[in-house]
Amino acid sequence: MKPAATPDLGSPAPCLGVFDSGLGGLTVLAALRRRLPRARLLYAADSAYAPYGERDAAYVIERSRVLTRFLLAEGAQLLVVACNTATALAIAELRREWPGVPFVGIEPAIKPALAARGQADGPVGVLATPATLGSDRFRTLLARHGADSPVLLQPCPGLAEAIETRGPQDPATLDLLRDLCAPLKAAGCTRVVLGCTHYPLLAEAILRVFGEPAPQLLDPADAVAAQAARLAGELPGCAAAAPLRAWSNGDAQLLRRVAAACGIAIDTVLPLPEASPVSA
């Protein structure tokens, strides 16, 4: 499908806040930059509290509240929850708490994966965090679109954390990825849904693990960016000074390196201010 034309946002442009448990949301940030090259983007990486995918709902909701408050205070007019786990567990609560703020979430691309499946195709595989796969939101999504279809769910404990702490190219990260992909490869999955925003950072490695014939990888980042672009067209401009600002409470150098691999130049990563911690 041809991407929709980028709205002429003019100057000043609207300001969009994006948050994730760490580096994974950079894949969504890159899609937003492609869709909205003139928008002002704020990115918050909550790496010190990652991984969300192995935490309970109360933990993820509280961290999502902290990041939402921070980005709104920095001038965000729209929030993109660039984390499947935070979308599954927290976005409904965020919308209740801030009813005047547009929120755009992300969820595994089960629907398009199954819609494209032919009779001769193998099952659809889903790589996701344990929290995403165990959430009510995901179960509803799967029941709506995949109740009678062959879908193989693969929880990936530790994978997002490995990307955060070691990087996507580290041998230990790739070894873990190989183990997690093995059941999907053995089952002959012809489409693999990347159910965590960290996982597109491993797209080339996933294809190498599967070999030929290579599965189609489904990443919903561009669909999220398209929805954000539609809503951004309804927002007034703001007087933010910089087109892109980033904060992290993790490894700033790794964030800049991964951002560059996603096609985003981030010169400075500011320290993400600490808030009262929640219990694990």
- Looking at how many chains there are and whether they match, the oligomeric state comes to single chain
**Name of the level-1 CATH class of the largest domain:** Alpha Beta
Strand-residue fraction? Answer: 15-25%
Order of helices and strands: EHEHEHEHEHHEHHEHEHEHE
Whole-angstrom Rg: 18 Å
Decide which structural class fits the backbone: alpha/beta
How many strands? 10
Provide the helix percentage: 40-55%
Number of helices: 11
* Overall number of structural domains: 2
Task: State the CATH architecture of the largest domain.
Answer: 3-Layer(aba) Sandwich
CATH topology of the largest domain, by name, is Rossmann fold
- Give the low-confidence spans: 1-10
Shape, per Cα inertia axes: globular
| N/C terminus separation | 42 Å
Strand line-up across the major sheet = 4-3-1-2-9-10
State the major sheet: 6 strands, parallel
How much is the average pLDDT?
91
What does this protein look like?
With 280 residues, the protein is of the alpha/beta class. It folds into 2 domains: 15-106 and 221-271, Rossmann fold (3-Layer(aba) Sandwich); 110-218, Rossmann fold (3-Layer(aba) Sandwich). Helices cover 41% and strands 15% of the residues. Strands 4-3-1-2-9-10 form a 6-stranded parallel sheet, with helices on both faces. A 4-stranded parallel sheet has the order 6-5-7-8. Strand 1 (15-20), helix 1 and strand 2 (40-45) form a beta-alpha-beta unit. Mean pLDDT is 91; it is low at 1-10.
